[in-house]
């Protein structure tokens, strides 16, 4: 069922998106630290170090220790500045909703970078598809192996740079339940072919996003339709900004940011 809706908060809905099935990256070595929960209540978190192809990465795991049964796991992919406090906050927010969340590290050493380096770093990493596949999949396996994660119920979300990463992981055929892109990069040089995408896709954008003008949004919708993906694309008509979800930023749109978060939660409820 295909549906495209522009909402005033205009929701573009469609169903038809296929992952571009890339070849898995050469096996990455992972030094995994699995968290064993102690008797505790409330939101808990800790950093976890792991390796990919000999390089050190530091992610951030968050969970509600008051929940004893296994629950879905959510990967969080950071903005172009690296694994910052906002990515960790979103992991905490997901833990409050009853998920185990892992904010992965795409740059290495758990670092954030200055704005002056962000375009170059995100471009170098984001355009190397085998590299992002290796780094994402290592973090994915780490999350699946956590004590309180139901490994059969996994999704991923990403912001800006991270939104493009989760869309590309969908294009490359990642076998998880769903991905959510918040103002992510749409046209990355990787295009899904028919049947490639095996996960449901939810994406949000502001209509005035300078990184996603109308022609790029149209190309994204055309790609999703042609690939046969199960997708939903939401474009907020009166949002004239790229990053509209981060309250610490200068272009925060509170109403639309909250609507997008709530719709993501509804999306997860439908998945799990």
Folded structure, characterized:
This protein has 272 residues and is α/β, with parallel strands linked by helices. The protein has one domain: Rossmann fold, CATH 3.40.50. It has 6 helices and 9 strands.
Topology:
Blueprint: E1 10-13, E2 43-52, E3 55-64, E4 71-77, H1 85-96, E5 100-103, H2 115-126, H3 129-144, E6 149-159, H4 161-171, E7 178-182, E8 200-206, H5 214-227, E9 231-236, H6 254-271
Parallel strand pairs: 4-5, 4-6, 6-7, 7-8, 8-9
Antiparallel strand pairs: 1-9, 2-3, 3-5
Query: Mean pLDDT, rounded to whole units?
Result: 89
Strand order of the largest sheet: 1-9-8-7-6-4-5-3-2
Low-pLDDT sequence parts: 9-34
Count every beta strand, where a strand is a DSSP E run of 2 or more residues: 9
In terms of DSSP E residues, the strand content is 15-25%
By DSSP (H or I, 4+ residues per run), the number of helices equals 6
How does CATH name the architecture? 3-Layer(aba) Sandwich
CATH structural class:
Alpha Beta
Helical content (DSSP H or I, runs of 4+): 25-40%
Order of helices and strands: EEEEHEHHEHEEHEH
CATH topology, what is it called? Rossmann fold
What's the CATH H-level superfamily name?
Alpha/Beta hydrolase fold, catalytic domain
């Amino acid at each position: 069922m295909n549906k495209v809706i522009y909402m005033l908060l205009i929701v573009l809905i469609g169903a038809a998106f296929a992952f571009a099935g890339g070849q898995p990256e050469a096996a990455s070595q992972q030094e995994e630290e699995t968290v064993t929960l102690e008797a505790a209540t409330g939101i808990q978190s800790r950093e976890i170090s792991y390796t990919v192809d000999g390089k050190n990465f530091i992610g951030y795991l968050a969970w509600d220790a008051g929940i004893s049964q296994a629950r879905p796991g959510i990967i969080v992919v950071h903005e172009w500045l690296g694994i910052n406090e906002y990515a960790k906050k979103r992991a905490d927010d997901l833990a409050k909703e009853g998920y185990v969340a892992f904010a992965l590290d795409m740059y290495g050493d758990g670092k954030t970078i200055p704005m002056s380096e962000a375009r170059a770093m995100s471009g170098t990493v984001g355009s190397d598809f085998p590299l992002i596949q290796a780094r994402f999949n290592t973090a994915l396996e780490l999350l699946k192996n956590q004590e309180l994660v139901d490994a059969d119920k996994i999704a991923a979300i990403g912001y800006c740079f991270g939104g493009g990463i989760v869309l590309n992981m969908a294009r490359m055929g990642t076998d998880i339940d769903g991905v959510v892109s918040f103002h992510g990069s749409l046209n990355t040089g990787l295009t899904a072919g028919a049947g490639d995408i095996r996960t449901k896709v939810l994406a949000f954008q502001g209509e005035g996003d300078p990184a996603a003008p109308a022609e790029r949004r149209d190309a994204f919708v055309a790609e999703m339709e042609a690939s046969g993906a199960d997708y939903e694309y939401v474009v907020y008509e009166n949002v004239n900004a790229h990053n509209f979800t981060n309250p610490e930023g200068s272009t925060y749109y509170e109403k639309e940011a909250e609507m997008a978060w709530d719709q993501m939660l509804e999306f997860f409820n439908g998945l799990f």
